[in-house]
Amino acid sequence: MSTAAVAPARPGRIAPPRLPAVQLFGTALQGPRTRRLRAALSALGIAIGIGAMVAVVGVSASAQANLLAEIDSLGTNLLTVTPGQTFLGANEVLPSTAVPMIRHMQQVNSDVAVYQVSGANVYRSPLVPVSETGGLGVVAAGENLPQVLGTSLASGHFLDRVSDGFPEVVLGAEAASVLQISQVGGHVMVYLGSTWFVVVGILRPVLLDSNLDSEVFISLPVAERLFGTQPNPSEIYLRADVSHVPHVAGLLAPTADPQNASGVNVSRPSDTLEARAAAKGQFTTLLLGLGAVALLVGAIGIANIMVISVLERRGEIGLRRALGATKRHIWAQFLAESALLAALGGIAGLLLGAGATEIYSQAKNEPFVVPLYALIAAPAAGFVIGALAGLYPAAKAAQLSPTEALRS
Amino acid sequence: MTVALALDAVSKEYPGEVFALRGVSIEVGEGEQLAVVGPSGSGKTTLLTVMGTLERPSEGGVRVAGHDLARASDRELAGLRAHTIGFVFQDFHLQDSITALDNVALGLLYTGQPLSLRRAAARAALERVGLSHRLTHRPGMLSGGERQRVAIARAIVKQPLIVLADEPTGNLDSKASGDVVELLHGLASDGATLVLITHEDSIAAGFARRVQMRDGQIVSDESR
């Protein structure tokens, strides 16, 4: 055969090698499947990191959902009307006509007013020094206060008709505990002003306005008679028609005091509570930081295992190059393997975190909530972290000379 | 005769002025079977890796299947390996964690064909090497001769124009070795070009064309 017989170049280009995504995926799974224990251990780091983060987010969300559910059960249609302050800082006074005016509004379903009883404090007995008020206030209130505020009695009953004529008192939850009274009946009395009052009831905590917990309640006629209380409400609580709450809120100030609407404050307690619930739903940055550290350690673990894997699999890399893999194919294979490993870790972490949240919410009797975005974010975060961790090992694998790799 | 492989004054120098090949010129026709013999360090394996486009020569021209490789990109070289060239190695390079069938199917991975097609072709290739009863066995469950036959099946599953075998019988006993060589000879009927490296004269003797190498040069090229 002579050298002149070299055939002319055949027409047409060389067909390039191809590795479609599906085949790449299958190839990338092969490594972890071969070394299952090692794959599981290296994914565990990612799983713990993601799990911690999912648990933090889940527990916060569960606590928030619990609070929101409570607020919902109390109703978000409660509005309060209070006197504001004048320009100079003095307290405004609501007119005594405010209550009937508000009661006449079409979309107000129920209302109750409380009246500050000044000059009166409540004590367990006359022997208690006058200065030791325990921070308790005395207010006069209408009979339907528990219904309007969505609370009930822990013991006994609330003020009624009888209370209009006799010195009867109902204690707020905090007030009862300060006065060390847990049960009514058996002639439990407290010394109020300079009169003994019979304790007829103890309220449960009022979630929508916890200020009321440290008050004691007497009837307005008794307050007027004994303490000269003026019939100017210090606060009016009302339930508006659920679909017209903002509308009613807008009309309340001019209705309560047509001549000085700017001296009237209107608020919606559930708004404050919802804001507080939202704040509670904000996961603790510190805990998230801990999760992030665990993730970083997990990422280093994956990078480490991939570097070892590249060293161990030199023969395989050489073979693949001989079978037609380009450097880029090798690079993509190891990068995908790293990313998939970490994504699996992310899914395991999601399950771990959801499990932790479930245990927590069971223990606290709260609803189980894992935010929807976590379902996508957990594996996606794992995938991205794995891809980043795999960059260096993948580059090392791609740079390996095929003949050297085959020799090992 | 159409030329499958041609090297024109090819030199391969490694860092430190180590010449593995010095001005080697050779042509291998399509369907030809060639044995390369020579002592270790004579440049046989380097010759094969240059023929197989795994390495570029430091000097000289290479043509594979009619393509001049001087201007070919790395991607095009990989394309030749994926479609045109099959390798057989001394130590098999089988993947222990997958079945014989999937090991053979791996030979088609970088052609981009879906797994079902690759497996079908792999089944046919394993049948061709007489291992149709070993499809689901893993390499660890096969004898050395069977493993090398799986590796040969992987090399021929793409129906390559050129098969390059580097000491394919180096790790086999004489019986298995004889079977493998017979199998490789049989590939001629499929039209595949075969270049086989061996240091066993008895094996080289079975080839119609024998090339002797020493110190990176071809010292004899005999055909009968």
Protein traits:
heterodimer; A: 408 residues; alpha+beta; 11-stranded mixed beta sheet; 14 helices; 11 strands; 53% helix; elongated; disordered N terminus; B: 224 residues; alpha/beta; 6-stranded mixed beta sheet; 4-stranded antiparallel beta sheet; 7 helices; 10 strands; 29% strand
Describe the structure.
The complex is a heterodimer of chains A (408) and B (224). With 408 residues, chain A is of the alpha+beta class. Chain A folds into two domains: 22-70 and 281-407, no CATH class; 77-273, no CATH class. In chain A, 53% of the residues lie in helices and 14% in strands. Chain A has helices at 21-34, 36-74, 98-103, 145-149, 161-165, 173-178, 220-227, 245-256, 269-281, 285-312, 314-322, 327-364, 372-399, 402-407, and strands at 78-83, 108-116, 122-123, 137-141, 153-156, 168-171, 189-192, 195-203, 215-218, 235-240, 264-267. In chain A, β7 and β8 (195-203) form a beta hairpin. The radius of gyration of chain A is 36 Å and the shape is elongated. Chain A starts with 20 loop residues before the first helix and ends with a helix. The model of chain A is unreliable at 1-11 (pLDDT under 50). Chain B is α/β, with parallel strands linked by helices. Chain B is built from seven helices and ten strands. In chain B, the strands form two sheets. A six-stranded mixed beta sheet of chain B has the order 6-7-8-3-9-10. In chain B, strands 2-1-4-5 form a four-stranded antiparallel beta sheet, with helices on one face. Chains A and B meet through α1, α11 and α14 of A and β1, β2, β5 and α2 of B.
What's this entry about, in short?
Chain A has 14 helices and 11 strands. Chain A has 408 residues and is α+β, with helices and mostly antiparallel strands. Chain A folds into 2 domains: 22-70 and 281-407, no CATH class; 77-273, no CATH class.
